[in-house]
């Protein structure tokens, strides 16, 4: 089952580089989805006398499922070929590549297999099955890694709130040294490159391109792909919020980086696991199209992908949530500034040994969508993570290349032992 918790995924590539910022829902305790005992093999689809598996009773309702296959460099082609040929033969359904698909043209989802595979990187699809077929056959196959019901996420930005902002932070530089204690000098220091040459993919609710934060930037700002019919507009606001933190003209960390929107949710486009997967694998496909690029994604860190995720907003141990519990990712918790000008961990932020560092996450100035000049204050760890993705974009523009180097740089440059409120929540005391 997919949980309601949304984690902010920030996927970063370079040469030239990409950063992806995406809300992601991941289930806890998914291990039960992998087979624990010998499983039946998929029959060879080339044989004329292939017997299709029992797909369940004709009166049993069909449910949307997301399926990820087990593949590696040696068996990718054969696993994908055999599995999809079995599906097409037994289900009599058409197979479509979601990265090239106009979803508005699909009328009958019962007769479609949505293939989100990226050759050599990930193999999987979304389609409808009966529950008995999944439980009794599909989940037990040797080549199936994960099978999850594709549910709509009712509250994707749980525990985040927005208020009108009285001020807009303006970037001023340079200064000789960043002060480590209050009062700060309100000047933002960044390299001359400012993230130039880095493409930031914001996989979210779209971007309000007409906002002043995206006008007159050194880098481009576009919405390149939508999985919500033909709707490219941001009618939710979250994608615009995130984009403005990553690279907005006056609010952004990496002002010169390119910002590229990939829309996966909106007012008439409920967020579900399928669209999250489609958005992330779309950017993976861009990497596959140009192997020189490096990308950030949970199962591809070993291939040189930088992966940043929000810790979550439940005041719980971040190790209980995937992918934040994965050691190779950068997991970001949220801080606030108190009235006596101290940095405190927010009441809502997740914590624990799986947190890499903290970044601002309460009352953060962000671009809004009401009009082209609106600035609001937003809170949540999905606002902390874009600060870190912007910082990594600065590193990539300056020559950092591997995930290990970017994570090491974050830890080396972090301000140490300045965060209060961690007494009962043991966490690395490191502030971006």
UniProtKB/TrEMBL annotation:
Residues in the signal sequence: 1-21
Catalytic site positions: 204, 238, 382
Segments forming domain Peptidase S8/S53: 195-423
InterPro entries: PCSK9_ProteinaseK-like (IPR034193), Peptidase_S8/S53_dom (IPR000209), Peptidase_S8/S53_dom_sf (IPR036852), Peptidase_S8_Asp-AS (IPR023827), Peptidase_S8_His-AS (IPR022398), Peptidase_S8_Ser-AS (IPR023828), Peptidase_S8_subtilisin-like (IPR050131), Peptidase_S8_subtilisin-rel (IPR015500)
Cross-referenced Pfam families: Peptidase_S8
Swiss-Prot/TrEMBL keywords: Hydrolase, Protease, Serine protease, Signal
Record Gene3D superfamilies: Peptidase S8/S53 domain
Family from the record: Belongs to the peptidase S8 family.
Protein name: 17007_t:CDS:1
Source organism of the structure: Gigaspora margarita
